[in-house]
């Protein structure tokens, strides 16, 4: 059977910052022998007008849902079988169901081989869902699927799924609750050691979701000789010994969800624990002193946020000479407490906004309390432009403690900032869908 795995693009503008779709590589590796699998990633290539496949699998995120449904409807009109999966489908299955012959709900391990067998036999069921979350042992990735696609150079690896925290806006919590599963440390280390190139990024939403497991991983990573980056929750940095372990394990960059400088906004997003330990500045200083670059992310739009909150975060990011910073309008995604609350309060601008043909990338999707939706949209875009302006890049490049500590660090710093600068300006204001 010919199987086409499709990664839709969010809009009409091709992505210049696409990374390999790790989940589809895992899906290909799960496919039983005797089937031919191809990857079509619309972020970097066109979807063939006359795609030949016996089964089309489409992964769906909230921002790609409109385009995913357009593609799925077109494939089905031509008589192709379509299965849809991904986080958005798991959180909004009733919305996705009219566009697919089958839905894959939750993690694919445990259901994909049976789904493929059923499709080959002509008895595809409407839904597939494991009775319980499958163990993450023996996971493999078909990386041959990614060859020649022009993805960014970091190799992607997953250690675990889920997070122990319950942030108001987080779709990961909506999907997994507070449960967390991780792969055996030895399997992950063997995978990392066998990857080409020197740089690896762990795609986990929080590498320290299980601190004990994370520390075991850090202890084993030095043997791989790799430099790596990961997303961490800031509470992992309360103990300086942990920061020493990060550096010794080869960590070169971390992404921290700082989210807000306002304690009231952190309380509203259920992330007050962000401020229970050392200050943001102290945590960042600990990382930079060890040559670890810091990527900080912020969200704006909670009820205590006014336009000045965006400006304050921008000034902080510059003063801290962050490697990269991302300033985001708060995004109400399906399944989250944030989405339910804003919907009940009648504050959503289009519902669902991700299917609204009038929605534009980078725009506010709801009415904030402390500013207008236009102020939120314009303030965030202005902060993104200023942070990636030439003077900002030059100023932050003067940080030889972390950002330009070595040739490798400097290469990553300039590459990431130039890509970020270009993509911010290309994507702002574009429509979702084809």
Task: Describe what you observe in this structure.
This protein folds into 2 domains: 2-129, Cobalamin-binding domain (Rossmann fold, 3-Layer(aba) Sandwich); 153-427, tm_1862 like domain (pyruvate-formate lyase- activating enzyme). The strands form 3 sheets. It has a 6-stranded parallel sheet, sandwiched between helices. It has a 6-stranded parallel sheet with strand order 7-10-11-12-13-14. The chain has 434 residues and is an alpha/beta fold. α7 (185-194) packs across α8 (211-220) and α12 runs parallel beside α14. The protein contains 16 helices and 14 strands. The radius of gyration is 21 Å and the shape is globular. α2 links the parallel β3 and β4 (81-85).
Helix-strand blueprint:
Blueprint: E1 2-7, H1 22-30, E2 36-41, E3 55-59, H2 65-77, E4 81-85, H3 87-91, H4 93-96, E5 102-105, H5 112-121, E6 127-129, E7 155-157, E8 160-162, H6 171-176, E9 180-182, H7 185-194, E10 199-202, H8 211-220, E11 227-232, H9 240-248, E12 251-259, H10 263-268, H11 280-289, E13 293-300, H12 307-319, E14 324-329, H13 337-344, H14 373-387, H15 390-397, H16 407-427
Parallel strand pairs: 1-2, 1-3, 3-4, 4-5, 5-6, 7-10, 10-11, 11-12, 12-13, 13-14
Antiparallel strand pairs: 8-9
Helix pairs in contact: 7-8, 12-14
